[in-house]
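Sequence only, no structure available. Ideas?
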Amino acid sequence: MAIVKKTLAHLIVALINILPVINRFSYFRSLNYRQLVDKTSGFLRSKNAKGHFRPNIDALNWGEDYTEGSSYQNSFACYHDILGYIRLIGGKDVFAKRLENLCNQDPQFQVHGYPGDEDNGSMSSSYLLNSLGFYPVTPGTGQYLIGIPNFDKACLYLPNGKHITINCKGNVPQYQFVHHVHYNHQAYHKLYLTHEDHIQGCQLDFQLGLVPPHHHYSSSDLPYSLTT
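Reply:
I predicted one. Tokens follow.
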């Protein structure tokens, strides 16, 4: 059935014939995930033909209304409107706690699921980008969210003759937090990099640390979100 996944993937709205501006249609269609947010639990849940949430949800149950995952994973799949989702479920503290709980769960593919499911290269490309310290979480925005490199140093040689050099200090297993990032030797505070900056070539210097750093981020430092 994968009802939740279908809603997230297609976001179809019956108002297409009456909205005068196609951009308005596209905007509201992309927010259709809101219809599945259960404000009591904060999870995305499927609904029955009468528009009521299906009962007895198990947020850790793999499959059924969700494709290749559970409600816990699929409920974070509002990548294009993550700030809107955070607001819907109760704010940043609630979101951070839920994300922490997700990351502390054992992978669900240990017994059931699709071990080794390559998905036409998506698994390997996802691994490579993440291991370099950045990833295009919301395709089409031209943004790469900053993560943690797996290497002390890596270099990407671009077709235009430019190159991207990535250096990482404190690259040990117990250091799981980015303390500082420098872009071309300048302190960099945004949580994302842009494709335009990448293709011109650059040097990225990461400093990792043992405990989470305390930073104040402005709205311009945050990655793309359709609503705020």
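The first strand starts at residue 134 and ends at 135.
Hope that gets you unstuck.
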